[in-house]
Amino acid sequence: MQTAKDEQLEDNIGFACANGVDCRPILPSGACFKPNTTISHASYLMNSYYEQHGRTNNSCFFFFPNSAMLTSTDPSYNHCIYK
């Protein structure tokens, strides 16, 4: 269940894209574009940021306060592969 507001997720998308995350997968021709929702795009990019920054609590909760959560379930789907 989504608890973060779309505005916060949009800020997270902007932060991730401005800080080294490859945002091409969420573009219209990308593997993670569909579903074309803010939460889906933010989820992919926040995970990418988390992975690129050592999978630390700081890289999850400090940079994405009140909008991130850790999971042990792989959220990959179809051709959208979370790394």
UniProtKB/TrEMBL annotation:
GO terms for cellular component: plasma membrane; plasmodesma; side of membrane. InterPro entries: X8, X8_dom_prot. Pfam families: X8 (PF07983). The keyword GTP-binding does not apply. Keywords: Glycoprotein, GPI-anchor, Lipoprotein, Membrane, Signal. It is found in: Cell membrane. Its main location: membrane. It is a lipid-anchor; GPI-anchor. The keyword Cell inner membrane does not apply. Residues 1-82 form the X8 domain. This is X8 domain-containing protein. It comes from Arabidopsis lyrata subsp. lyrata (Lyre-leaved rock-cress).
